[in-house]
Write a structure and sequence with these properties.
four-stranded mixed β-sheet, 2,3-Dihydroxybiphenyl 1,2-Dioxygenase, domain 1, alpha/beta, 2 domains
């Protein structure tokens, strides 16, 4: 990518300049960052009045959460005239039932519409859909 730092491998993680990620709007970015940090086991690497970010223990990917005045949660599945989903997060898990129970315990809700056996569409505390999925749909855990 033009303007991107070349070959940052070997540098201390926080000294690198090749970070990448996604930013999610939220009515309370700190609370949503804490929710996802617990869901995926990542750490909060930034938090201030305008937003927060989480990152895995290794690597340079992140998920940022940005304050959004007047936030309207998307609707799943899509409905004409309602706020549409523009993106969602997917997390692969080994034990789908355990991952769903963990997310529920942290404040997520299971969506009413579940289109696949090996995927659970969840709604985070702000109403964003996210998916927990098991790659092997032949497992009895569904």
């Amino acid at each position: 990518m033009h303007g991107h730092a070349d070959n940052q491998q070997g540098l201390p993680r926080m000294s690198r300049h090749d970070w990448w990620g996604v930013t999610v709007e939220a009515p309370d970015p700190g609370a949503l960052a804490r929710f996802y940090a617990e869901v995926v086991g990542w750490e909060i690497v930034k938090e201030d009045a305008d937003g927060a970010a989480i990152a895995p223990p290794e690597g340079v990917a992140y998920i940022a959460f940005e304050a959004s005045e007047g936030f309207v949660p998307p609707v799943w599945p899509a409905q004409k005239g309602a706020q549409r989903i523009t993106m969602h997060l997917d997390f692969e898990v080994i034990d789908l039932s355990a991952a769903v129970a963990h997310a529920l315990g942290l404040g997520a809700r299971e969506a009413d519409h579940q289109p696949q056996q090996n995927v659970r569409v969840m709604l985070d505390p702000a109403g964003h859909p996210f998916c927990l999925y098991r790659d092997d749909d032949s497992s009895p855990d569904s």
